């Protein structure tokens, strides 16, 4: 919370601020919560003066009312999607990754989440004067891989360097450090004014560190994280991608002997049903606006001609419940 | 600390890797062997050569700089009492002699000096393992030349005395602390893991132990298997990697350690 400062009112001079501070009234909140008469006695100011200062604080700090037509115009003038540069992905995403919202990439281990994220980082800065912030929480970012992808796309050394200079990488290991990075971005908006995309790979490897704690501190951190991210992506107009993982569990059910419909079937059959679950719990479930689910397609034939991996991609738009599917391919020259 | 990818690339390409002494296996791992700063998980049923590979890597880290090696030391954390000193001595001697032959050094290998470069810790049980992990930063600070930390195996301390949820929490905390040191000091982390059975999975019932969440944590996962049980031939498949395609390679385990199939 901000401390009292003299710009609030001409009556609020430095000696008065000092006097208030000596009486443990330091922040704006302290000032607003204090009894007006007591403030008047302390500062030797008239009560209307105190009221004027209060009014000024409210005016400066309260949210403003915007006419919906002017809001519509500002929204229309903005770019709402960030093109991914992968044609099939753009088409199922209805144009690209939403700017101002959180997009989730999820899938089982080894399904190509990190590969997709690195590709998106490259594509976002390739032909634009923008930067990407890649927050890596498990040391998975490989600059060598990025360079190989660019090399396959026949970039010159100079062009490669130019692209790679625009990808900023932060290695973090705890939720604490994650929040610190976001605060750093929030408080240095000018430094990050070219930022177009923030990628966090991955959230579960941070959140799982708080698994099994009874104090729910992990949930607290997740909440702080979501608040900061929402603020940053709205005010700075950036897209945010969070990597989540899936886990599987097996439903085992023995068919009921008394069940009339299945009585003619073998009675002691055991059914196994595989369920796939997005991690991070119920709170997180409705946070992302769009969810990109990746699933590796297993090649049936043993003869593998090349090292390309095919990924079934499903995009779920949470607002309208729309599902669209496509297939991506991971090759030596990146994700296409 | 935020760095750009170009700076990171310079750092990554300047780092050597730890060779496995099998070209085929090195190719599968990509970038010529085990990466520094990454967590590599080696999976396999018993008898597929996990511990042998581990011993080979602890010997490989001593390869002289003139051959592109690290000339460094190793820390071996033994949680399942699989370590065999005589076997390590055998592999170490053979590996260093091979280097001497290539460099045409006639002087014989000083095995005592070489053995001093392996730091061996045996831990049994979860408490001892955790307290070791907490003192690790200090240990590494005192021995800055350690460039590989091998844990054989990661599952053993967690086999009993902890609930599943707490196990996940603890494992991820330990790994975060471990990788923080690994990245800042450029140390390779190699973890051995066993296989477990989960009936009903569409991708096959035999999967790596510790669950799906854990599968996501390691940077590189390598699966070893023995196609013919009696043979020394082994197959290695890359299950996951941040920089290389998922390929399959072959190697053999001989008296000298891990080598290519002739």
Automatic annotation (TrEMBL), chain A:
Entry superkingdom: Eukaryota
Domain RecA family profile positions: 78-247
A single MF term (Gene Ontology): ATP binding
Cellular compartments annotated: Nucleus
This protein's record includes keyword Nucleus: yes
Annotated SUPFAM superfamilies: P-loop containing nucleoside triphosphate hydrolases
GO cellular component: microtubule organizing center; Rad51B-Rad51C-Rad51D-XRCC2 complex; replication fork
Entries under PANTHER family matching the protein: DNA REPAIR PROTEIN RAD51 HOMOLOG 4
Protein name according to UniProt: RecA family profile 1 domain-containing protein
Species of origin: Leptidea sinapis
TrEMBL record, chain B:
GO biological process: meiotic DNA recombinase assembly; reciprocal meiotic recombination
Localization in the cell: Nucleus
InterPro entries: HR_Repair_Mediator, P-loop_NTPase, Rad51_C, RecA_ATP-bd
Primary localization: nucleus
Keyword Disulfide bond: no
Gene3D superfamilies in UniProt: P-loop containing nucleotide triphosphate hydrolases (3.40.50.300)
Coiled coil regions in record: none
The entry's keywords: ATP-binding, DNA damage, DNA repair, Nucleotide-binding, Nucleus
GO terms assigned for molecular function: ATP binding; ATP-dependent DNA damage sensor activity; crossover junction DNA endonuclease activity; four-way junction DNA binding
Pfam family, one: Rad51
GO cellular component labels: Rad51B-Rad51C-Rad51D-XRCC2 complex; Rad51C-XRCC3 complex; replication fork
Domain RecA family profile: 14-195
Signal peptide boundaries: none
Domain of life: Eukaryota
SUPFAM superfamilies (UniProt xref): P-loop containing nucleoside triphosphate hydrolases (SSF52540)
UniProt-recorded name of the protein: DNA repair protein RAD51 homolog 3
Source organism of this protein record: Leptidea sinapis
């Amino acid at each position: 919370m901000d401390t009292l400062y003299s710009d609030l009112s001409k009556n609020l001079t430095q000696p008065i601020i000092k006097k208030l501070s000596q009486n443990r009234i330091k922040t704006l909140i302290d000032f607003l919560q204090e009894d007006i008469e007591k403030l008047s006695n302390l500062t030797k100011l008239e009560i209307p003066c105190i009221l004027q200062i209060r009014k000024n604080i409210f005016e400066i700090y309260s949210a403003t009312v915007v006419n919906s037509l002017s809001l519509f115009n500002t929204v229309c003038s903005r770019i709402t999607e960030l093109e991914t540069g992968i044609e099939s992905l753009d088409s199922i995403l209805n144009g690209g990754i939403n700017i101002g919202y959180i997009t989730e990439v999820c899938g089982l281990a080894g399904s190509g989440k990190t590969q997709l994220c690195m590709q998106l980082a490259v594509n976002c800065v390739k032909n634009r004067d923008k930067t990407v912030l890649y927050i890596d929480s498990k040391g998975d970012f490989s600059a060598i891989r990025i360079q190989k992808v660019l090399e396959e796309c026949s970039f010159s050394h100079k062009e490669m360097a130019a692209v790679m200079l625009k990808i900023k990488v932060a290695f973090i290991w705890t939720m604490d450090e994650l929040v610190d990075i976001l605060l750093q971005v929030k408080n240095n908006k000018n430094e990050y004014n070219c930022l177009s995309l923030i990628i966090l790979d991955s959230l579960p490897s941070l959140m799982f560190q708080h698994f099994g704690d009874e104090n729910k501190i992990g949930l607290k951190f997740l909440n702080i994280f979501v608040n900061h991210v929402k603020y940053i992506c709205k005010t700075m107009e950036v897209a945010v991608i969070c990597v989540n993982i899936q886990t599987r569990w097996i439903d085992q059910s023995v068919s009921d002997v008394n069940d009339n419909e299945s009585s003619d079937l073998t009675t002691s059959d055991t059914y196994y049903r595989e369920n796939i679950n997005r991690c991070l719990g119920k709170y997180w479930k409705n946070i992302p606006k769009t969810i990109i689910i990746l699933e590796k397609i297993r090649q049936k034939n043993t003869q593998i001609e090349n090292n390309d991996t095919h990924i079934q991609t499903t995009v779920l738009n949470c607002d309208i419940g729309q599902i669209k599917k496509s297939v991506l391919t991971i090759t030596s020259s990146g994700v296409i | 600390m935020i760095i750009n990818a170009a700076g990171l690339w310079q750092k990554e390409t300047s780092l050597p890797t730890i060779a496995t002494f099998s070209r085929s296996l090195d190719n599968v791992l990509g970038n010529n062997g085990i990466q520094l700063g990454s967590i590599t998980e080696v999976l396999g049923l018993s008898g597929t050569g996990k511990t042998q590979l581990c011993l080979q890597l602890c010997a490989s880290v001593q390869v002289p700089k003139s051959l592109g090696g690290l000339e460094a030391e190793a820390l071996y954390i033994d949680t399942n009492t699989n370590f065999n000193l005589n076997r390590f001595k055998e592999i170490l001697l053979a590996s260093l002699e091979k280097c001497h032959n290539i460099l045409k050094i006639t002087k014989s290998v000083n095995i005592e000096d070489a053995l001093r470069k392996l730091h061996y810790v045996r831990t049994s049980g979860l408490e001892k393992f955790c307290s070791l992990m907490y003192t690790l930063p200090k240990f590494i600070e005192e021995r800055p030349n350690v460039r590989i930390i091998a844990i054989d195996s990661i599952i053993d301390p967690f086999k009993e005395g902890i609930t599943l949820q707490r196990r996940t929490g603890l494992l991820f905390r330990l790994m975060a602390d471990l990788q923080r040191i690994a990245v800042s000091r450029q140390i390779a982390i190699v973890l051995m893991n066993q296989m477990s059975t989960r009936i009903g999975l569409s991708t096959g019932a035999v999967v790596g132990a510790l669950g799906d969440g854990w599968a996501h944590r390691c940077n590189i996962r390598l699966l070893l298997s023995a196609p013919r049980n009696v043979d020394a031939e082994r197959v290695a498949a890359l299950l996951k990697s941040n920089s290389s395609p998922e390929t399959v390679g072959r190697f053999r385990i001989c008296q000298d350690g891990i080598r290519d199939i002739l």
